[in-house]
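To whoever picks this up:

The nightly regression suite flagged BRCT domain-containing protein as changed. Nothing in the input moved, so I suspect the structure step. Input below, exactly as stored in the fixture:
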Amino acid sequence: MAAPDEEFRLFDQCKFCIICSKDLHPSTAHQLAATLEQHGGESVIYEAPAIFPPLHEFTHLISTTIDFPTFEAAKNALIPVVKPHWMHQSLSKRKLANPRQYSPDPRLFLNDVVVTCGDIPEGDKDAILGGVLAKGGLYSAKMGQAVTHLVDLTTASDKAQMAINKGLKIKIVLPHWFDDCLKLGRRIDERPYLLPDPEILRAAADAPIRSTDNKDMIGASTSNPTNLPAPVMSRQMRPKLDVFEGRNIMLSPDLAIGSHLLNSITEIIEEGGGSVISDVSNADILVCRYREGVAYRLASRLNKDVGNLSWLYHLMTYNTWTSPCRRLLHYPVSRTPIPGFRGLKISLSNYVGEARAYLENLVAATGAECTKTLRQENTHLVTAHGNSEKCEAAREWGMHVINHLWIEESYAKWKQQSVSDPRYTHFPRRTNLGEVVGQTQLDKSVLESIFYPSEDKEAHTSPRRAMHTKDQNTTTGKGSAPMQGRQKKAQVPETDNPSVASETPRAANKSRKISDSKKLETPARMRLTSEGKENETPSSTSSRRSKDAAAARLHEIAPDIALYEKEMKRVGGVIYGGRRKTDEDRVMLDKNSKKRRSTEPQDEDEEEEEEVADAKRQKKSRPPIAMHLLISGYQKWVGNMKKEDTDKRQLRELGIQVVQDARKCSHLAAPSILRTPKFVNALAYAPMIISADFITACLKKNELLDPTEFLLKDQVAEDRYGLSLEEAVANAGKNKNKLLRGYQVYCVESIRGGFEAFKSIVDANGGDCALFRGRVSYQSQREESDDDSSGDEGSGRKEVYLLSSVAVDQMRVWPRFRQMVESIGKTPRIVRVDWLLDIAMSQMLRSADDYELREDMANTVEE
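Regenerated output under the current build:
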């Protein structure tokens, strides 16, 4: 009989590096090595702080963690990093298992989950399995020792009873747990979802949600600690460190630490076998505070480890190497804010301990302001769950209520993320999201594209070259002359092009992956100029800059190009609301939403003819836009989306762009004076108001007619509303959207017409509108907000208005409204909605006396 290694050499042609860590002891590593070699593999055992062997020699790395120095390099080289379980599964299957399902990367947050399903619908089962496999988990059709989670609706199923009767250590969870995990992109605690008595089904909606301490954030809540951590402050308490053994560390002058602390840090590093040097070229690690300066850029481009003081202290405390990109505040910060974050005022709620301190410091690092209390002037509320009085108040005041993932991912991508993304507005019912704070990691490709691009692109892509004229990693200017000269030279085009400095330059994201480079192929000539010629003369510098800028712009709009090409392949498709893909103002659907199709069937010949017509329209140059037209109440389009689509295309060919936003319109067309939100909002921007007959006439004659011949005249409506349309437009031009500046207007929740309609009218005229639900909380914050804004125009106004009617449910909140307003020393005025509409329609202020409501009017005034 053949020996085992001759019979089955599964790992032949494979060479492994087994990386020891606190979870993978050297004795276990030697056992793994013996098994691998028995089945034809070669192995090397690595123990820190030894020098890591050449990475290219290995086909696989075996590790229980990604906290080893060459993880990023292995990922970029497409060398799989797997947990030891991968080897056992490969042997049991007698083939190499998929390494993705066994990765120790915490971003694959379900990599420790082996799931099986009980009696749940097939559709739910397929969705759960797809999500689990995509996030690193495994599926087992049968119950077994390897299964960690059973998904079921009750404990009455056969699998659930088997798990209970046999005492298997399996968590029986509702499908809701996987749903919430996948929505957030994070693994949350299973306890609220555990059968037989899941908390999410029995707890009341207003029951308090327990807060949890996040131990993972200890030592990572600030980017600039002031003291050494307790375990390393004295020789008696100090553990024996080997994390620095054989490493050269440079402490940048921009840390601005005192000589006593500097000597203490140097002593600790040298006791651990490391060296503190001042030459970044010979350093293995750079510790600095800011993402700027020659030393920072040089170390980053050479793939050295770059972290801040907090990261250095973390290594000292735990004596275990971890990447400075693993935690957001372990990496140097930027002096300039994330584009769009300057001026934001963000408040935190329901986060405690280190997690709260971490988020406060992270908000400051983005360039926004973190306020201790919630005020009406706040723009965002970041909360760990949505079940609190503070959250309700924020929603009433029209703030964005999101979870911490919005802040973390905006910081990691150095770009403000959309607050409408469902991931940022999802709050599991019985989970405090403080438990998953700090799991977001920095993306090196983003850092490279923005903060240390390659030298040939540095002048065009870095937003801070124009702002820093000297090396800010050194206070004495000791950088080498060639480096300083190169830096000054790179500043010239930055200063000439302020738009580059004000935007996040995604174009410089030079991906390391081959697959990414193939996503967009530029013309050969443009590719040559963007990469640079070998023998370029000085006279071509200006031309080269222009071509580089063009190439950068092309990369920036790459997602739009890809989406356009995708839509071009759609046969005669109708994208949304009857708009065709050639329409300039069509609404773009989210890629995950369902595409609406035309309700009228077309045969293949008609579709081909339509596609040819579309192509011809693309080739035909359209006339410039002569007017931006907002249309309200045009009856010929009501219920006929196909005609609306055709007519809008014809209008565009005549130079008329139909818009939906009142702020963008130059002309307003309507059959008569209307009180629709479109009409009233548009009045505030002083457009030319014309009759809807103008549209009909232009379409009939197929030419752009003179709009002054179609000015809207409606004497009946002017008499009814007591206004002159001509005077209203003239007044709007003088008001410049400031008619209601300083006015504070509230709406009752059940206001006829809807709160959003009245809020848009108040906003268009410069006022402040909020929803009033009868709450009298956060009075001190309101009062402070009023005091803070005392210098603004109109802030001295003593009246606060409530739009209401005499309906019984609306009258109930009147006493609370009066109590709230009087408590801050102002006068409450409860008025009919006509007060606001008449002001907005006439563009003239009107006294509230004729519109005021009182309790004794309940039987005399109609709702």
